[in-house]
Amino acid sequence: MESLDLRVLSDALAWRSAGHAVTLVTVVETWGSAPRPPGALLAVRDDGVVSGSVSGGCVEDDLIARTKASFKALDAGTPALSKPAMIAYGVSKEEATRFGLPCGGTLRLVQEPLLDTAWVAQLLARTAAHQLVARTLTLATGAVQLSDAVRGQTLQFDGSTLSTVFGPKWRLLLIGAGQLSQAVAQMAVMLDFDVLVCDPREEYAATLGAGLLGMSGIRRVEGMPDDVVRELVPDAHTAIVALTHDPKLDDMALLEALQSNAFYVGALGSRRNQETRKQRLAEHFDLSAEELARLHGPVGLALGAKTPAEIAVSIVAEIVQVKNAVTGAVATTAGCALT
Questions:
Q1: pTM (2 d.p.)
Q2: Cβ pair 2, 27 in contact under 8 A
Q3: Per the structure, how many domains does the chain have?
């Protein structure tokens, strides 16, 4: 599950509420170098407006044309799509070339009319509460059921039922509100993270400014860092990075973070500072070797970064690297999966 898919469902719900007809399309199987993974979601509105993607742009035009033709047929009195249906692209070399599928990739999709929106609203509410949710679609009837999902559960499709997993948005808690934190926050928001910034030092928090806090997806959390981490109850969709360079603030937050389920915990500082920090945490707070080994420090990938913006790139890149390793995401380049 990617946060993008939740945005697709949110858009689809808004369109239906506004009176539009909507079709959902889900990638169920891929062969070759398909650019979007199974589970990727696309919503097509009756006027051709889309949200999300299933092929990185290769077959979306045809799906839009199919959807608009279906709704025009309905206006003319011909029954439109009323139940889910299978669509395949790239079955032959000629068709793969026609639709521009990279490297001869093949896609199998499930197309379904969004008739009942109650499950969409419920799914969005449950994921907003940081729950993992499985959605099961019965193709013969179009019926949808929601149930609790477990970590590691993946898409399942047997030709008659389709089960996909949706989870909460990825979120990033930054300890510190300095220039580096601001750069990290802006980049993380571009990657669809919810960003929380905690800094009890008013002189630093004031530098966040109305502009940054006014950005969708970034908000300040008041309180001491360790209290904030504890109250957040970090889960496997949460990353925590300490950037104050003040042990009194960073260490207490890291103490809570390293004992949590956060998928990534990082801290600013040199290798020498990190070793000193780990000794301090082990001696005074009784953290285990396994817990200390979870700490990414010096934080970020080794890019030779010098400026705050470059360091921010290295931090966000490492977070994405760890996130993708956790979720088993396939590495891609220029929209074409590597094989």
A1: 0.74
A2: no
A3: 2
